[in-house]
Batch of 4 targets.
Target 1
Amino acid sequence: MTNELTPKFNPTEVEAGRYEKWLEADVFKPSGNPDAEPYSIVIPPPNVTGKLHLGHAWDTTLQDIIIRQKRMQGFDTLWLPGMDHAGIATQAKVAARLAEDGILPQDLGREKFLDKVWEWKDEYATTIKEQWGKMGISVDYSRERFTLDEGLSQAVRKVFVQLYNKGWIYRGEKLINWDPKAMTALSDIEVIHKEIDGAFYHITYQIEGSDEFVEIATTRPETFLGDTAVIVNEKDERYKHLVGKNVILPIINRVIPILTDDHADMEKGTGVVKITPAHDPNDFEVAMRHDLPMINMMNNDGTINENGGKYEGLDRFEARKQIVADLKELGQLVDIKPVRHEVGHSERTGVVVEPRLSTQWFVKMDELAKNAIANQTTEDAVEFYPPRFNDTFMQWMENVHDWVISRQLWWGHQIPAWYNEAGEMYVGEEAPEGEGWTQDEDVLDTWFSSALWPFSTMGWPDENSADFKRYFPTSTLVTGYDIIFFWVSRMIFQSLEFTGKSPFHNVLIHGLIRDEEGRKMSKSLGNGIDPMDVIEKYGADALRWFLSNGSAPGQDVRFSYDKMDAAWNFINKIWNVSRYILMNAEDVSADAVSSALTKVANKTAGNVTDRWILTRLNDTARRVTEQMDKFEFGVAGHILYNFIWDEFANWYLELTKEVMFGEDEAEKDITRAVLLHVLDQVLRLLHPIMPFFTEEIFEKLPNTSGSIVVAEYPKVRPEFNDDKASEGVAMLIELITAVRNIRAEVNTPLSKAVPMLIKSEHADFFNAVSPYISRFTNPSELTIAKDLAVPEQAMSAVITGAELYLPLAGLINIEEEIARLEKELAKWQKELDLVNKKLGNERFVANAKAEVVQKEKDKLADYQEKFDTVKARIAELKEN
């Protein structure tokens, strides 16, 4: 059999070589159709420091779902791939590799070291692309970019120079966050504040020329080496007599003044505050107000410098121990009080960050932030999903500080500034003419170039670039909430400044992937999950299904192998359904399918179950598309799962056996055509989420050609809608389910025939579907009528549109049956209460769509009818 699927779904076999076939067929490239609406995404670039993690797998999965669906819907789609050079992280990784061979970067020099980094980049970029292939992401590799590409570098230089010429980039000495391990400046958002154990050290400073002392408290006693004043509040009566005098710093014996400043809080501690301007942001502000000297007492690597006297050369924490011991010996260490406090750590290296005075390059943020804030009130506003993250974005922009953009690294975009021996500085896109110029050795913060990603990758600064004109602004960005400040915000204000447009229309924010206990995945906990390991065991489709269905936008998700098992089982279920259909319908032609569907729609052939499944397929396609458009992939997946597993596989497939095992060949042809059509549409609906196995089955269907990647996405076909059939089969399913439940309660297997009575206003319908009732409930005698005598001793059930009775004399206990019905009555009362509460809510009735309100009213009528019928049956049993 040419179209036969293997008896058991094997993800390794299904996915092997599939990605390469897609690439060879160029199905991921834009259609180039000028009449199609463009839809573009730029991938959040992974950095080239190693393998993809689950968070990035989540990003790429959701973006691939979006772009695959839009491609199938006929959009001219572009998904542009690329990678980030990740200055600090990559340089640290390469330096660590060299250290294994006893080589320091300084031993090689800048150029040779950069050659090693480029080797690293090529190695890990290849790995990442292989992993993208395993994930199945449908990017256009002909447009792949890297943040250090010449085109992107040109964009970086242009942006830097233009901002500098406007006065929005400047060079100055300010207090910044310093990473002593990477030996570079960090921006505020590259500092992670962690709660750690520390201490308050209470130290006395002697008043010059007297035996009097003042007491200060600090968590960093080593910083007293850089003190240039102590302050008190001018309203503090305790210290008024000391203002204008000096204190003597212990050990180093430097004299510093006592000043007044409102920064000193009379209610906090002793009310005396030491001022270390070069190592504390608040102290820096005090020093600026009082024109105090600023003494940097630390080297780039976190050791004490020449201003530290006898402590010169010691690591900062070793110096702390020595200083505390020396203060204790002098009698000037009053107390040590343990404290739990937050301390800044480098987001990249994990070490404690040191606030430090340093000459750096900064972006002046006030105007850029103002523009970004104002834009969110216009038609060009970026739409955040969920909307609450717009508030996160706005709050950060309203409180943003100037951005330190220089990094003391070799790997990155070297700052386009040059200096000569005359002390002159030149800033330009190219080096200045003439001799004697030396380029600034620092590089730019990685996020400076990444902030330009949506438009620099499209060919900007050439605004006539075909891609820039066609695909910018991009349509949707998908990323985690932890990167809003690092990347999303910066892309928005830079794009507004240099293109006059928002960089994207929508931003879909997802959460973090946690372990099964809800903990954040980390190396220290050893609870990380490698997505490639998951793919090796379960396949990419199962992982993608889990990632897309794990949570709502903005919410964290817990990784679970039980959920991976469930995803694999779901795929295997579809696989088996497909095998059954292909074995029974492999020779059905396209014309036969089209003709059969027309006849079913016109009700000239087919049966009620055929019309029902086509109606349900329409409803599923409509609802899934609506939810996908809202980025509610979890809801869309739930709708698909219920339709495929319950309605299509468990019910329609089983109901068709009444036809397939019958004698009417014409009816069989209709059923085969409907089975094929529904399977075809199911595969298309699933394809954006699970691309590999859907393609495998799709290409084995009769009448299909080409790749499912570019097949048309399902649309609602109004001619298939049949509300009467939908309501009828719903009653049939409810009836069969009720019979099975009753049989289970009295331990009567399906193999044992029992009499059955159905009392219903829809008796004609139930008589028409009686062959299905007989096949699935095995009645010894079936009576269906609008009115009939109710047997005294019978199990009963109330379903929509009917009352069901199974006379099981001798098998039932009347008291137990009454108790069972009373539980059922309570269930319907609970449903009534819920619906009445919803309909009694004036806001719901006023704001909900009319069809939603009507649906609740229909529920109310249905539940009320069931409640009344059960109540009446209880009364009958009690009377008898």
Target 2
Amino acid sequence: MSSSDEAAGAGRRGRLQPGAAAGVAVPGTLLDTLRVAVVMLDTSGRVLLWSPLAEEMLGWAGEHIVGRRVGGFFDPGEAGTETTGGAHRSGAERILADLLRNGRWDGILSLRHRDGHSVQVEARASMLVDGDGRPFVLASVAETSRLRTLEHDLAALDALYDSSPLGVAVFDTELRYVRVNEALARMNGLSPADHIGRTVGEIVDDPQAGAELTTLQRAVLTTGRPVIDLIMLAPRGLGHRSISYHRLVDRAGSVLGISATVMDVTERKEATDKVERARSRLALLNDVGARIGGLLDVRRGAEELARALVPRFSDYSGVILHAAVADGGELPSVQYSESTPMRQLGVGAIRQGPEVDRMIKLGSVISFNRKSIFGVVLATGQPQLVENDQQLLATTFPGDPKVRATMELGIHSLLVLPLRARGVVLGLLVVSRADGREPFDRDDLALAMELADRAGSGLDNARLYVREREGALMLQRSLLPQTVSQPQGVEVAFRYVPGSSGTEVGGDWFDVIPLAGGRVAFVIGDVMGHGLGAAATMGRLRTAVRTLAGLDMPPHELLRRVNDLGDDLAQDQDEGWMATVVYAVYDPATRRCTLAKAGHLPPVLVHPGGEGGFAGCGASLLEMPSGAPLGVEGVEFESVELDVPDGTVLVLYTDGLVEARGEDISDGLDRLSAVLSRPFSSLEDACDDLLATMVPGREPDDVALLMARLGGLPEGSTASWTFPAEPSAVRRARRRVRETLADWHLEPLTDVTVLLVSELVTNSLRYAHGPIGVRMVRGGSLLVEVSDPLPDPPLERVASTEDEGGRGLQLVARASRRWGTRHGRLGKTVWFELAMPVGGSGT
């Protein structure tokens, strides 16, 4: 031992240790931690050998100490002296006497360091004899602070093994147990002694688990990478354990083995699993609610509900509803029976096949027995848990092929749940599990009922939506023209597409109104806002426009009068109303079109191209004063009059056709003009193509589209004359009318036509002082117009027997099918219509 110390000391004084020449550092060992110094004394207490560690511990070099007595290094306060039989002995002499008497000594000493402070050490000395028979003392000295630290560490380690609730074990490099505490022994069901020398694979009952643990241990031993908190099943499946492995390395860097810490985490795992189940169930509830909550369609809602449950909650699922619920009908009001129409409206399955189709085919009719599980759930509204084959056979009715398919698919657990809303059962939610999946339990039943109740409310909302939407659309369609007339010389095509924002129908509308003289009015408008209120305002506005159109006034005057109606057209006078409108009047006889608009998008004129309609055509927006929307007080409207060539197409539309989210309105108008500039074979094709080019994802607004190809009347269908305001005008007018009727082969109408023309021309001569115009138009009826510069309309009055005049308008009113007056730029026009003679062709 002294040779070892001398070697170590020599190395510290400049001599190299073995291996140092090669540049290899020698790591410390446990002895370096203890720092045990060796001192050799003779029997008189003189130092014979002073190790380098003693030099480091007390600061005295060997060459200064060897040959001196050791008593000089004792702390006076510690060693002291004692008197025995009148003789005084120092502490060193006393210790030496004990050595000579007993052959050994150990104890705590306080030695003096060279710099003056005290060093407490623990010493052990033995009396030895050399080869020549001479006695000497060999002492080992270590600082007590280092020893106490090591003792504390060892005590803590022992306490960890003995008192820790954790299982602790140490394995050697062959992965055999070398130490194991009682806690781990109890976990494994063996005594600590039964573990020593055996591997984990020999301790664990499950060979597969043993092989996995051995692989992990070997990886930790080889790589040094620890495994921390690995959760595994306990032996025999009794709970769960958390296992951690670390590699053990001594101070010299040698691998000693691995340590293991094992903790029973069964309760933690169960709590974690419970929290995870709660979280997953909450996520499922939220997911199902999100998937069906925004769907206002019963059928789509049923499909989404069934698909959302597979495979997260079940292997197969089906949604069965009362047939009336799917179509927005009333809630079932009578007891469910075998004749109640039930349909499979939602299906979810982990796989497909003939058996699945037989069990849950989408759209199939569902039959059941009143006393079956289906019948009981429908009647009572209480869920049922099906747990065995006998209960499966009783779900619907005996011999049901759907039940046989259920059993063929290996379904072993079934939940039949009522879909309820406001205390009424709408149908059933049926979910099932098959093969090796765990059967449903009571917790699953509670979760499924929560799902079913939420789904029932969502499906009922969708049912109400369907009903309200259908009602709103029915109201809206009833306010739109049911048929559109095709006036002579004009071809009309139209489309109306309701918006997609639920019951919030819009206020878009269009109309084609026949006017006197073969003329026709085209109207399109958009009441701002949505809902039944907007639709009702649209209906009142359309009625007002049709009524005022019958007065045959200019477009701008008609818009002014409609605007003057003000709050009478609004649903709520506090909120007011607002609408955009385009009103156009076309006269096929003169090929003139007069338009006015109130804040609406500009009409489009498609100019005629080559033969075949739209080929080679071009489209342009019609520039005209925009005017403020109707409902704004104190605004003026202005008419624009233009001549249109035969074949020109007038296109009126609402903003739903050209508006798109995130896009400027001008882009939509450019797109509209580009589409209308293409060649089309017919107006119907043009309407379809315009609707097909609407931007996907546009705002859910209504779309109204009206296209009219403007043309003239057939050649020879009109005749007109102008007569000076002279008495001969009556005679000349009668002659021209009679000749024209003969040319048109309408002789049966000659007498009444000539009589009425005479009355109207005579009336104009009496009050007017300008030229008198007469025009005749042959079409579906015979139209006759008499115009003069006098702006005031004639008044129909009741003439007495003594009056010589005043019966002209009464005669016109009684003899004609209808009659009226209208204002023009230079006066007024009085017109009347006569029905064509029966069997007369008018050609």
Target 3
Amino acid sequence: MASTEKKKKSDSARTKVRPAGFPTREQVMDFIATSDQPAGKREIAKAFGLKGQEKIALKALLKDMADEGLIDIGPARAFHKMGGVPKVTVLRIVDVDDTTLIATPERWEAEGQPAPRLRVMERGKRGALTIGDRILARTEEAGRGWVAHPMKKLAKASEELLGVVEEADGGKLWLRPVDKRIRRDTPISDAGTAKKGDLVLAEPVGRPPRITARVTDILGDPFAPRSFSLIAIHKHGIPHVFSERVEEEAVTASSLALHEEKREDLRHLPIVAIDPVDARDHDDAVWAAPDDDPANEGGYKAIVAIADVSYYVRPGSALDREARKRGNSVYFPDLVVPMLPHQLSSDMCSLRAGEDRAAMACHLVLDAAGKVKSWRFSRAVIRVAAVLAYEDAQAAIDGEKPLDLLEPALKPLWACWALLRKARDKREPLALDLPERRVVLDEYGKIVSVAVRERLDAHMLIEDYMIAANVAAAKALEAKKAPVMYRVHEPPSRDKLVALKDYLATFDIEFALGQVVKPATFNRLIARIGEAEEKPQIMEQILRSQTQAYYAPSNMGHFGLALGSYAHFTSPIRRYADLLVHRALVGAYGLELPAPKGDIPDRSSLSGEDMENMGRVGEMISQHERRAMEAERETIDRYVAAFLAAHVGDLMEARITGVQSFGFFATVEGLGGDGLVPVSTLGDERFFFDEAGRALEGVESGDRYTVGQRLQLRLAEADPINGSLRFELPDALPQRPSFKKDRVRPGSVRRGRPTNIRHIGSKRGKHRR
């Protein structure tokens, strides 16, 4: 009681010294609520023209208002209404509700109150924001909640640090980043219980140049099994834990009756699934046989059966919202982050051999020239005869391995594929034969090997069946004027083509810009090069000239495949776009089945919300796809670095993949993983950077290092934590103390591969087509 009386007297004393004309509580509250910038003490004083002693009185008033629960203080010491959020503040996007991004204040200090969840209202070009992004936003109350209007996207680098704790001389702890683009370690000011060698998440503390790190989460041993994937998951903010509600719904959905009597029964057909040997799920299976229609002599009929995921994952369900938030499954060498819970992705929706499964069947009829004459879609029940690895199917067809299904299943598939190949060769899609790395681990998660995946006819066979089904799905929906989530790949931009023309000129190769550029244009270019040593770097440059594919409800065609209409239909277990295409087919062709009982939504076709938000969803899942690709690539780089760590000091066959003024990047042939050769290690002379020719050239020797060049390099360093490598020339000499690098020589420069540089390595053999 005495304490309360004392506080009242203190409040009264402060109130009495406030000058005439001083703002009231209501006026201050109104200013804070309507200000279009962070409202701190300085901004409030300026708004009311307060000076000297008035500022002291304002400070006392603001403290009183905070004590009374009227206002609270947020980031940058700006005030806001208690229980609300500042008018302008920093938010972090943490979730997506259907198609609306959800954000929370980056700092929330209101005790006993949960941080509010604000709906982010994007304007103009959407799709620039995704989960994990930080934004400066203007906020306002709307109805029963809050909304945020983004003003500026903020850098992610300032929000959290992911690295490994290291100990320097004297016991001082430092954070070594896992991102190889960050070249500086950060001193740790608060390690908590983290110790040397721990993989941790930390937040930056302080202001430049005195930034330190405060450890917030300890993730464990960076070299333990699956840690490389864990690094990528945390770095890119990939959702990887299903909520209890989603898991429970998956169990409920997986118990739905198949309704065999209302599905087309295809269980009598020897349908087979052909997948990678390490596949975790099987969402497609194929069958073919000669067409028995006399009018289609020499033709074939085929079925591409795809897991009927839309039957289990319905619009508006918790499963659906989670799948949309993820966009796709993410595949790492040591684990998979699935789009759907394992109850569905690797069990009920996976087309296992010998088990009845719900499928969406695409029936195709091909003529003798390989043209698809007709198609139809049905909901079916299938029983896969066998799940075969690509290598085993190829060995069987080559006569190297006996297989009971060779005659009834594989030979008809290969015969039908011969027709599909005719059609593919006629349309001439882009033929860039680029290697794909595969990391093989043992049962303990240790690396056994890193190698380029062998390209077999079996791979191309499945690709062509899938492409045919995808085209049929797009055209079937167009025929009904139904919504389509297209897979779009636009032609190269003129800027990219000009850059390619300039690059090819360095090899005395002409490339006319006036022509109509088609995929065949690039194929003819590659054919002209033949098996020349510069072929790999030219193919790489052609790839860089291409645009990035994306998902959208507006059709712009697929340039790379030389197709006018294309939609992803064949992988609904791992891609949300395919699930939308399945739903659209169900609605367009009346394939709905009896409504399930219980809490599961009635329909499995597109909902009104699905149709309304196709554009926004296309942008989101395109972003998620790029996020997954980057995470997968970085993880493989870490495994490659870990694999090569035992070979530091060895000479390796390498190829230059990039050139900058500070050095060039090279990759070990057959393994991948870029490593830097610093210009300071190239010898006791000056080098100038030829930007147009993408090369470094010695002023005295004329030695030239250019993209695509093969040479031997010594591995100087391999860092598994960030996936970086560093190379040196085998006979690198120490540089002079007075050496100055990267001086550009004026005037014209020679480009391409000069005659005085001998490329090391044999010509690439022709790949099987």
Target 4
Amino acid sequence: MQISRSGSVLLTGAVAVALAVTALPAAHAAPSATAVISEVYGGGGNAGATLTRDFVELANAGTAPFEVGGLSLQYLPGSPSAGSLWQVSALSGSIAPGGRYLVAQAAGTGGTVALPTADATGTVAMAAGSGTVALVSGTAPLSCKSAADCAADPRIVDLVGYGSAVVREGGGAAAGASATASVARGASLADTDDNAADLAAGVPTPTNTAGQTSGGPGPQEPGPTEPGPVRVHDIQGTTRVSPLDGTAVTGVPGIVTGVRTTGSRGFWIQDTAPDDDPRTSEGLFVYTGSTAPAVKAGDSVLVSGKVAEYYPGTATQSVTQITGPRTTVLSSGNALPAPVVLDARSVPAGYVPTAGGGSIDALPLEPRRYALDLYEALEGSRVEIADTRVTGARTAYDEIWVTVKPWENPTRRGGTRYASYQDQNTGRLKVMSLDPARPVPAANVGDVLKGRSTGVLDYASFGGYQLQATELGTHVDRRLRREVTRAQRSDELAIATYNVENLDAADEQAKFDTLAEGVAVNLSSPDIVSLEEIQDDNGPVNDGTTGSEATLKRFTDAIVAQGGPRYAWRYIAPENNKDGGEPGGNIRNVFLFNPERVSFADRPGGDATTPVEAVKTWKGVKLSASPGRINPASPAWESSRKPLVGEFVFRGRPVFVIGNHFGSKGGDQPLHGRFQEPTRSSETKRVQQAAEVNSFVTSLLKADRSARVVALGDFNDFEFSPTFTALTRGRVLKPLITTLPASERYSYVFDGNSQTLDHILTSPGIRRFDYDVVHINAEFADQASDHDPQVVRVRTGFWF
């Protein structure tokens, strides 16, 4: 599974990952690539302080949403005594990739400025000069009171000691905290597990998940009544970063074109006297923080404030904006500037310039050559799209993806296929509504927004450029239907794969029922089903439970209730918290099989740490253990799901099935980001994992070249990726997705791109097959999983 907030990781070539959730590090002794404590301030409300209360800010350095529900923030005095206890503040919600999360603590009697709206609130009175803060999996108080003991506690996700704190990471605590200074990480959010090196003192900058960085406004001087010398296009400039970044501006004129009253509040203005340079946008966002904008569309305004570049994520492009604004309304009811039409003719075929992996921020924009340069040249401006096809269904965040290029890599069912790293889909845009009372429709892939949709072109960490709509076209339902594959014939062995998205026994019955219908009805009850993301029986409860019997009992019962067979199951429980995924969830691969049609060759010896091997016999090859795991001690599988191998028998013939769930794309730079070409850092681990599977399949075929092997599951990568080069090396496996027409090669939809993360591969001994990706989830607003299952039916008369 690839995890993302909207089903979107900001992931290179994707998806991603699996959002689910990126794995927590085992302890703070392992530097975190996801959630970190980004800023600590204990001087709130003290004499001389500006802010009225203490705070701790968290940040997500990853590219998938980080779920903090079930976690806690804990505080210990800098020099704890025998009676000192960790004080606990429970957390809820999630942190977007590159986003912040604000935890307000105790207030004092000093200070004049309130924090922005907190995402969580505690009552801990933190010391200004010295203390220790820990981000902890679970809400049970820690008991450690030394750096060494805390380093050994697997519940600690990250830890910051400041001042003279004895509990800290590395050789020294972060220095410089006071009533007027916090300690904070740099913009990169680097975590080397050395507090003294990672954090430095500075002016407190509390930021919440909405991007708000200040409390209510203080007294303001009246704004100017005449335009100043700077116009919007002067601020935007001809590159992605304003030439006036950090500069105070006065009396910038414009017409208010849109107002955002939720989340990161503010409004957009657009100059009605544009220059003649197509590279300089005439629109701009004015950020009002936690204060609701006191303007409306059609107001003619003068805005004074400070120009700033806001980066919503560590690898994203920035949004040029005016912060700390003072706004003068000159008149109301003015006509809005005419929108720029975005369509197949106006959006260029090129996607984005290259900087050899570096930043494109300083490159002059080329809006006639590159789509992302065109969108950047229109950042904050009014645009219009018309009769657009939906390529990504409405998400839980009330957003959909559309394309203004209907013939760009189309899928058979109306999507836009992600074909290669070089062939980007330039016509994709995300659409959101500026009116909370009129969200985007519950559309599926292939539906149409008929007529004009008009609004402001914005940029965000999830997905990049998006239309903040003030006017939405009419939703036309194209009546996309869920597919039902045919049933296998008596002499066909049907083997399927299905990522069931963190299923555990505590889930609602409706989820079990819908997933079960997918197996019994849409997949027509395959003989073998390889499942990914079956959790332990109490899901994210992190208490050492690793078994999945109750989860599988509920699931197989639900399949029977939907008319399917009574499946048996096999799996190997992982070591607690060693296979990644949701903390405490212990996800694993599982085999279901219909004992009326196929038998399982149970062979003892398989466990979480023992590698399975190919054993050559006079009858052919067999497994040393069944079920077994492929080389589980290999570094390739660290904090990741180990492949499950099983030996099945169908009509007297052995079949070796390998269930896989490779590492997610968390950590990859986004397609739309400022680093081009984006780095796919997560790919290294998947290539290693692919080499392990390839090596094992090679050993099976070396013992018996005609061995029938099916490797399947969620590989979290594309058929054109280096992962698949490693997986298929020596032609020991063939990816069946390549046998389908190009318009059907997908099982997942991310950021409006239809793409393939799930695969079935077969060894050369399997020559006649019927393969099908069964589209029942990824294209729909209402889905039981974010992945589509797939099935291969193999004719036993054509094994050789």
